[in-house]
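User: I'll paste a sequence; please echo it back and then give the predicted structure.

Assistant: Echoing your sequence first, then the prediction.
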Amino acid sequence: MSFTSVSLDDTERPDCKPGCAILTEPARGVAKEIHPRMPLALDAESLEPWLDAELTDRETIRHLVHHLPHHELTHWPVSTRVNKPEEDDPALIEPLEPAVP
């Protein structure tokens, strides 16, 4: 599965600090089990039209840019270490082992 998560990069902030905004939408599919909103995720074919600065007509964008189908979304529990900015390693997204009763 290939998809694009959509964000805006703001390099012209008044305080000169880097900035980024993640675009969200109402949650779809299994994402609704976690939160009422989710990051906007587009299918792979939507990347080029999404990045086209000359494409500004909303109806044209709606015809060329498509959500990742909700049936392709999945999730699993991960460590609470993901909540700590100082943590940064690939194991953060590994599924947690089920608890043994």
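The beta strands are 3-5, 7-10, 19-22, 24-26, 37-39, 41-43. The chain has a mean pLDDT of 84.
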